[in-house]
Amino acid sequence: MAAAAITHMEDNATEAFGFIGVDEHTLKGCVIQEATDLGVLLVMLDTSMVPDDFVLYSMSLDKGRRCRVVIRTDETIGAWLDGASD
After folding, report:
1. Is 74 exposed, middle or buried (0-12, 13-18, 19+ CB in 10 A)?
2. Cα separation values, 82 from 43, 63, 75, Å
3. pLDDT given at position 84
4. How far, in Å, CA of 46 to CA of 63, rounded?
5. What is the pTM of this model?
6. How would you class 70 by CB atoms within 10 Å of its CB: exposed for 0-12, middle for 13-18, buried for 19 or more?
7. pLDDT value at position 1?
8. CA distance 28 to 41
9. Residue 1: which residues within 8 A CB-CB, separation 6 or more?
């Protein structure tokens, strides 16, 4: 079976607000519904503008994190966090 990022929402999840870097001039707001060491589940009004590779910014993260989309619906994105350290 292939690995996948988070595909479910926890009822008691701690939500945080974040921004997705679409390009060097554009940020889109999102809710970080769930986060682990490996990935995140993001909720937003429209995911169509988000590229497959993006940077996620949030006050709940220690720095901007590069992400890769593995599952997408009209309003949610499941993404792996880049494990590389700077």
Report:
1. exposed
2. 19, 12, 22
3. 59
4. 24
5. 0.77
6. middle
7. 39
8. 15
9. none
CB atoms within 10 A of CB 15: 13
Amino acid identity, position 68: R
Tens digit of each residue's pLDDT, the chain (86 residues): 344 444 444 444 457 899 999 988 999 999 999 999 899 999 999 999 999 999 999 988 888 999 999 999 999 999 999 875 44
Helix (H, G, I), strand (E, B) or coil at 66: strand
In total, the chain counts a number of residues equal to: 86
- Give, as one character, the DSSP assignment of residue 40: E
